[in-house]
Amino acid sequence: MAEETTPRIAIVTGASRGIGAGIAVALAKQGRHVVLMARNVDKLNEVAAAITASGGKASVAACDVADHTALAAAIEAVADQHKRLDILVNNAGITRDNLMLRMSDDEWDSVLNTNLRAVFVACRAAVRPMMRGKWGRIVNIGSTSGLMGNAGQANYAAAKAGVVGLTKTIAREMASKGITANVVAPGFIDTDMTGVLPQQIKDLAIEHTPAKRMGRADEIAAAVAYFTSEEAGFTTGQVVAVDGGMTMY
Ligand code: NDP
Hints:
This protein is α/β, with parallel strands linked by helices. It has helices at about 20-30, 40-55, 70-80, 105-135, 145-150, 155-175, 190-195, 200-205, 215-225, and strands at about 10-15, 35, 55-60, 85-90, 135-140, 180-185, 240.
């Protein structure tokens, strides 16, 4: 297979820790060359070193996804350097929680810029090289908050719901070109993002999760690895919640 000599190139944003680092490891295990994007270069280098040490291929492209011009340029640079781009996982995300009545415009804008506009900009930059290669896999990381709403997360839930509409539209526009686009919507996952929450909120989230535990980054990565696989070419425009059953009811 051609892939053994020239591995498919995968960009994973927010790959310096948490779910993104888990996704990068899983894609490297699939034989992809993974390009790790985030702001913290030291942490990116640590993830890249761990992947390389276990026989995988990884490189680092530091980038602030909220700087949309820099993000588009970084994606184009990866495609130019490798003469291809096959896989894009938009995982970088932030929270700035507040009740809607108290939410500032700045809290709204920063979350929308990082969690939604950056996803649009990255997808737009990535589809050109994917179209040239007549093959592409886009996976955008949503959230159960974007499917159900969540008190205190008007900005985050709106951005993540927007990711679903954006992804389904990309899926429709790109299906005939061999490019798929899907959403993985995590439930309550054990990372830095949830680590800062008060214990009372964590207990409540676990109570609302039929599996009665938090999920792990590798459990999200497994769903992403399916959507980016060679075999998933007929699966597009889908939203899979990996949430211990939270969105069943
Ligand atoms: P973490 O806070 O643990 O990690 C966030 C990652 O995003 C880091 O790698 C961070 O890197 C990167 N990032 C944040 N802002 C930027 C930016 N402006 N530019 C580049 N990279 C950025 O979060 P999780 O791993 O928990 O979350 C990953 C994704 O999963 C997010 O989209 C989140 O919304 C989603 N999610 C998480 C859930 C959970 O329970 N944890 C639940 C549902 C969805 P750096 O700081 O180095 O830039």
